[in-house]
Amino acid sequence: MHGVDDDVMVEAKALAKRFGEFEAVRGIDVHVRRGEAFGFLGPNGAGKSSTMRMIASVSPRSDGELKVLGMDPDREGPRIRARLGVVPQQDNLDTELTVRQNLHVYGRYFGLSRARVRAKAEELMEFAQLTDRADDEVDSLSGGMKRRLTIARSLVNDPDLLLLDEPTTGLDPQARHLLWDRLFRLKTTGVTLIITTHYMDEAEQLCDRLVVMDGGRIAAEGSPSELIARYSTREVLELRFPPGEQEPAVERVTDLAERVEVLPDRLLLYTAAGEAALEQAHARGLRPASSLVRRSTLEDVFLRLTGRSLVE
Ligand SMILES: Nc1ncnc2c1ncn2[C@@H]1O[C@H](COP(=O)(O)OP(=O)(O)OP(=O)(O)O)[C@@H](O)[C@H]1O
């Protein structure tokens, strides 16, 4: 049985996950629509993976309601899983098999015909830019290639919904950009993506809509630009001072910005006009060791919402 609205891919209400006494997910509402790239952004331990595992229908919920592709994971787990693609946090490829063999094994697991498996594997290696590594063992691949293969493998069954748990953690910048590029391509084919990440740039790049998670709760929800507009200012002036000079500077800059955040190594002045604030700071005789005017990011949103930095 499908839900009333076929375009709702995931619907969670007051969804909770407990491990013994510990509540990892504390009653969250989530609504993911067909074709969107939806993100869970939050630091380690926020409850992102626990949520993903409930959506993947491999971990039962402790409380609340959950529908995935219109079905109840408790009763229809196998039917849901047949239509999902899952990219876990840790690659779980068959390392002693080749790239092509990995795709073949998985395709047969999903019950595809031999001819279909062969064609699909070639198509997916092309997509993952691994065709020239087809006959190489997984062990010989770089981290980025392994991730691309894991994603390719998750697409063997043409899933309606692809779940990616921290897809680029541990990759170097070049490998991350290549992977983002592939995920962009996937988005254009209409696959719904759900991504967990603690990288704000990843969330900004990939997600149409996201929730900021912290301590098992949702702190905010919206598109990256909506969240930035709602919780931050257009620009941020970052000031770094020589040792001992930051603390006395704080009260001399508070009226130069809508809000000032004091980090251990710098002050963040939230303002619509960073350069103007910097000029005023100079006019007041403040002499920062360095200064930087930049646009607000989701990192600023997270800091505003939680008082902590995502990268701590
Ligand atoms: N099987 C488990 N048993 C007990 N506690 C768990 C279990 N799985 C997760 N937790 C705890 O639940 C909290 C949320 O973990 P979860 O993995 O969902 O967070 P996360 O946001 O995905 O972070 P990470 O990126 O580190 O996976 C953490 O404090 C974690 O220690």
For the structure shown, list the relevant keywords.
312 residues, alpha/beta, Rossmann fold, six-stranded mixed beta sheet, four-stranded antiparallel beta sheet, 11 helices, 36% helix, ATP binding, ATP hydrolysis activity, translocase, transport
Give a short overview.
The protein is an alpha/beta fold and 312 residues long. It is built from eleven helices and 13 strands. It has two domains: 8-222, 3-Layer(aba) Sandwich (Rossmann fold); 233-295, YebC, transcriptional regulation domain (Alpha-Beta Plaits), CATH 3.30.70.
Domains (count): 2
Helix content: 25-40%
Number of strands: 13
CATH architecture of the largest domain: 3-Layer(aba) Sandwich
Overall geometric form: globular
CATH superfamily of the largest domain: P-loop containing nucleotide triphosphate hydrolases
Q: Please report which band the strand proportion falls in: under 5%, 5-15%, 15-25%, 25-35%, 35-45% or over 45%.
A: 25-35%
- Spatial sequence of strands, sheet with the most strands: 5-6-7-3-8-9
On the 0-100 scale, what is the average pLDDT? Answer: 94
- Helix/strand-derived category reads alpha/beta
Largest sheet: 6 strands, mixed
Number of helices: 11
Poorly predicted regions: none
Family: Belongs to the ABC transporter superfamily.
Keywords: Antibiotic resistance, ATP-binding, Cell membrane, Membrane, Nucleotide-binding, Translocase, Transport
Protein name: ABC transporter
Subcellular location: Cell membrane
